[in-house]
Amino acid sequence: MTPALENLFAYCAGYGASDVHLSVDEPPRFRVQGRLSPRPEFEALDARAVDDIAMELGLSTLPLGCPDGTERVRKTLIRDGAIDGAVTAPDGQRYRFNLFRQQDRTAVALRRLDGTFRSVSELGLPRNVVDFCQERDGLVIVTGPTGSGKSTTLATLVDSINSTRECFIVTVEDPIEFLHPSKIALVNQRQVGRDARSFNDALVEAMRQDPDVILVGEIRDLDTVRTALRAAETGHLVFTTLHAGDCPGAVERLISMFPADEQNSARRQLAMVLRGIVAQHLAPSVDGRRRHAVTEVMVNTTGVANLIATGRTSQLPSAIETGGNVGMHPIEDSLAELVSSGAIEERVAYALARSPETLQRRLYGENA
After folding, report:
1. pLDDT class of 115 with cuts at 50, 70, 90
2. I want to staple 338 with a disulfide (CB 3.0 to 4.6 A). Which of 148, 200, 344, 353 is the partner?
3. Overall fold of domain 3-112
4. Which CATH fold would you assign to the domain 120-329?
């Protein structure tokens, strides 16, 4: 690893940055507690410096011993416009990266990954989320915007299964972010582009490998949705992520990926195989020194399944609000708890709330 890249990684870890951004003619910018800024210790990078770092990172996405690696990375970047991957720094810290082209120049985005597996309570997640790990089949979705900790939550759930169940876990990721050494379970991890051609191909192949649990890093296309639902339907427990703001939004997002003439059957299939959805955001603390997990949980009860199957997703928020006895809660409950404990500011909570009126009632009572 070159000194330039080692220096970036060392500074990122020491400074507590979650992300690093490299652009031509700009100094590296580090994101700390959600705020992105340059550091005086670093000068602006020229095109050659950014390109060299990008090529070094890109080599890690290729099979070992691949001939003409740098040229292959360069051609892929020009052809596709972006390359995803992950790399381990000399200190053992894992980083996810995205190499991309902008205005005919190379740019790099790096994200520092938490190398340790934390409990759901340490992540600030509700304890009942781990109950999904005891399911024997079905689909569990973790949703939220980019950078909300979805991958970290999935890693915690997989580690819980790995630590407690005698089973076979197959993960399909792009890139592999968290390394899971086998514990009580046997874990095989496959990286798209390196170990498999695509998410869908890897998922189809996984179903022939006798897995009990399958993790699909992200649902990106219709074929992967179809295969994931089929896997959940045929006796596998499938975990995946999806970009949506809340649980009802995740349902609609997934269904909208189907052609219009297939959406009714897709709703019925999802209603049958879904086990639950966890939606999460990260809210800055009052002092700005950390971020707190804000969550919403939906469990697929008979009533929820009926709403999904019949397309009445507009009624799902009400079902979540009244489903506390089975472990459900709306995002406003999580926000109100954080505000009441002094962890986040009220204005931040209202910005994230789906229903400001509901949040106001949670904070000030039914007569507010």
Report:
1. low
2. 344
3. Beta-Lactamase (3.30.450)
4. Rossmann fold (3.40.50)
